[in-house]
Every structure is written in structure tokens, then in C-alpha cells.
UniProtKB/TrEMBL annotation:
InterPro entries: RNase_H-like, RNaseH-like_sf, RNaseH_domain, RNaseH_sf. It comes from Candidatus Tagabacteria bacterium CG03_land_8_20_14_0_80_41_22. It comes from the Bacteria. Pfam families: RVT_3. Residues 2-147 form the RNase H type-1 domain. One of its GO terms (molecular function) is nucleic acid binding. This is RNase H type-1 domain-containing protein.
Length: 148
């Protein structure tokens, strides 16, 4: 059986660092065609926390989309423009920021339900859609709070 490949673009960002934060996730087939797009406001976070939250959210959504059995047979490549988070999740960098430990552990535990997952650092200009939808989410959230 040919293993299916899924490419996931994740991005997290905050305005203020820490400040109002959001995530953007784009799940694509191996040809790069978007299957699903998600954005979500996540409260007050740092940029790094938001990057981690985007990966956690993406893993949860993939389990919902494809089912717990099927995700074990899919090659998943998670692409992000955060060098720090990509390298920490790949085991190349140590985690020194204490706030990131629980998020790293959550991803580590979620990974157990999946087959092959790789974390790939990409240039920001190759992550434009995830970045666009997270910024749209932040813009909407900030404009709503100004109306209150």
C-alpha cells in the first residue's frame, strides 16, 4: 500500500510578544492542494508559544479529519517558518524557555498516535497562506475588541 503524504503549514504569531495571539494551519495533499484551512485566536501568548500551539492544533485536526487509524499510515510533513520551534521539535535545539516545556511534551505525546512526522523549517515567503489567515484572525479579533 502506497503511503499517503500530507503537508501541513503552521504559523503562530502574537502582536506584542506576549500579546494577542493567533494560529494559522493549512493542511494540503502532497501536490500542495489545500484540503482544509484553520485559524484561531488563542489569547495572550508569545510568538514561540503561538508557533507551538499551531502544531498542537494541526495534529488534533488531522486526527479528526483522517481518523486515528489512518494517521498512522500517513507521512506528515509539518512546515513552519520558525527556526527555533522546527529545530526544537526535530531534536536539534534544546528547549531553554520554561513556558515551552509543556507544549513540547504535549506535541511529543500527540506524535505517538501518528506514523512518520517530520518538522521542516521553511522560509517565511513559503508560508504565506498560514501567515495570512493567522493575521486575518488577529485583525478581526483586535477590531472586535475595539468595538466593545
Amino acid at each position: 500500500m502506497k503511503t499517503e503524504k500530507i503537508i501541513v503549514y503552521t504559523d503562530g504569531g502574537s502582536r506584542g510578544n506576549p500579546g494577542p495571539a493567533a494560529i494559522g494551519v493549512v493542511i494540503c495533499d502532497e501536490k500542495g492542494n489545500a484540503i482544509k484551512k484553520y485559524s484561531k485566536s488563542i489569547g495572550i501568548r508569545t510568538n514561540n508559544e503561538a508557533e507551538y500551539e499551531a502544531v498542537i492544533f494541526a495534529l488534533g485536526k488531522m486526527k479528526q479529519l483522517f481518523g486515528k487509524e489512518k494517521v498512522q499510515d500517513i507521512d506528515i510533513e509539518i512546515r513552519m517558518d520558525s527556526e527555533l520551534v522546527a529545530r526544537q521539535l526535530s531534536g536539534l535545539y534544546k528547549i531553554e524557555e520554561e513556558k515551552l516545556f509543556p507544549l513540547f511534551i504535549k506535541i511529543w505525546n500527540l506524535k505517538m498516535d501518528f506514523g512518520n512526522i517530520s518538522f521542516v523549517e521553511i522560509p517565511r515567503e513559503k508560508n504565506t497562506e498560514a501567515d495570512r489567515i493567522l493575521n486575518e484572525e488577529l485583525d478581526n479579533k483586535l477590531s472586535q475588541s475595539r468595538l466593545l
